[in-house]
Amino acid sequence: MKGQVEISTVELVAARLEREAEPGVVSGRLESFHDHRCDSVPANHNVTYAGGSPPPIGLEEALDLTGFGRFSVKLVLGLWLCMTTQNFTGTDIAYSLPAAQCDLQFTAMEKGWVNAALYVGMMSTAFVWGALSDRVGRKYPLVLSYAAMAVCSFINAMFVSTAWAFLVCRVFMGAMLIATATLSMTYAGELFGKTYRARVFMWGGTLQAFSAAGHAGLAMWIIPLQLSWLRSWRVFMLLTTLINAVTGLFLLLLPESPKSLAVRGRQRESIGVLASIFSSNTGLPADCYPVRSLTLPKSLQDSANEGNPFAVMGRQFVKLCRPPYRIPLLFAVIVQPLILYCQNTIRMWVPTIFAEMERDLASGLTQSRAVCNILEDMSPAAANVTTYTNCEAFHVDSSVYLNSAIIMLARAGFQLTAGFTIQTLGRKICLVSTLTLATSTLIAWPFAASSSVVLMIACFFEGLANVAFTTLMNITVDLFPTSVRSSAVSLANFSGRAGSMVGNIAFPLLLAFNCSLAFWTGAGLLAFAAFLSVFKPRPSFTPIPNTGMGAKMLAEQRASMASMTTVTSATTIDGCQAPK
């Protein structure tokens, strides 16, 4: 119901713009509405401007003026659901495989291929989703991808029983998942002002980490169960269907990105969305939103008329490969795969590592062995041939999932700390320092001689690597203008998922060859990423300068309302309620 109210607010504002505004877009700006209910609010607000209307305001400044309030909290919840869905879809197989390997008779190499299949799907459509969303908007491609993932995850959980069928389902889910990974960050970034954007991304990562801990907790509770009607690991995978469906439905309650609307020539609707956000955040009517006109850079105005979205894909790619986008794009597409090669590979293999260590202890050994002594038992022959005979007696110790839950809670702690410190430290320092520290944890990993030491190292690695990735995504969003942002993020995600795919295939091969080399290869890649991050490029565009006019108008409006409410006992003034 609340979503319906907000949508109607946008429609009313857009209709008023049509009726009352000066017609059309003039010199790249949209002349806005005038609501007479707001005339009496600030007595000193009715200033005479040159040309008879307030000066135009850039999109970033207009978005900042919407503030932080009820809508922002709802958007954080939506971002959390998006990131949680990505986590559930990406890691449900990692938790399920230790228990499902007997039913499915997966070899170590088949596990690697199934883990990698998701990233093959992501790579196949990475650039398509970005270019498409730049032309048709962010919201509905997101909703479509969540609906498709819900259907596919249901089929995967209930009916798939062979490695090849798993591969097909995981590839399709990856093709949809990349849309959510690409568009959710872009979508949220275009609905939050720059004042809150960096911290909100970190908070979103913190909430995702808590949900990841909950996901591991659910695995600890569900997978060890002995059910007569369905394998417990299949019940666990059905959770992915549920979270995808819930997220898609929730996104229907949110508006389209105002930046995307403005770039596509729908400026009246863009102001309507901004006014609706302002109203929800401040408690004031949408008519009191102080922005009276928007201005767009010429490059964004031109991008609204580029034609068919699929025909635009090639032009977008060519544009990104030329100055001034070339250097920022190279930075994004090189650093992201270096991080994800390590983070996603280790994350997918951690449950298996703990399961192997628990089986090693259960075999009757009196002394713990180092990680690599255990993993090197997976010889090349064992990597290709695996046979289980009694699946009814086959089970995974619940401590495997308890350890995963602890790792995710540690990740949440790192994200929470980063959320409060990133503004002070700066994103560049945050990225370089976390990558450097994560490198040291991978160097130490092969020497861990007990599950408790492995758990501690895994907590530090996952927390540091995740903060580094979240920071990199935050940086990437700000490196490109709205007209090519989704396409650039899609290319970066394409390269990142390529790194994840290579990592999940290479890791079991390196384990069979030399365990220490498997971890130290990742350490070398993270060290190189830290080195490149020292030379982080500047944004590829010049934002419209903040005129301060919108903030001045809003401050005058609030000051006048405050002074008027001291004279009268009324809580509203011509429909504009003073913010509490």
Annotation keywords:
580 residues, two-stranded antiparallel ribbon, Growth Hormone, Chain: A, membrane, mainly alpha
Give a quick summary of the entry.
By secondary structure, the protein is mainly alpha-helical.
Residue-averaged pLDDT, rounded? 78
Shape: globular
CATH third-level topology of the domain at 70-255 and 323-383 and 397-533 = Growth Hormone, Chain: A
According to CATH, what is the class of the domain at 70-255 and 323-383 and 397-533?
A: Mainly Alpha
Distance between the termini: 24 Å
Oligomer: single chain
Question: What name goes with the CATH superfamily of the domain at 70-255 and 323-383 and 397-533?
Answer: MFS general substrate transporter like domains
The computed structural class is mainly alpha
Protein name: Synaptic vesicle glycoprotein 2C-like isoform X1
GO cellular component, one term: membrane
Keywords: Membrane, Transmembrane, Transmembrane helix, Transport
GO molecular function: transmembrane transporter activity
Give the topology, please:
Elements: H1 2-20, E1 25-26, E2 29-31, E3 57-58, H2 59-64, H3 70-104, H4 108-136, H5 139-159, H6 163-189, H7 194-222, H8 232-251, H9 258-263, H10 267-282, E4 293-295, H11 298-303, H12 309-320, H13 326-362, H14 371-375, H15 380-384, H16 399-425, H17 427-444, H18 451-479, H19 482-513, H20 515-533, H21 549-567, E5 572-573, E6 576-577
Parallel strand pairs: 3-4
Antiparallel strand pairs: 1-2, 2-4, 5-6
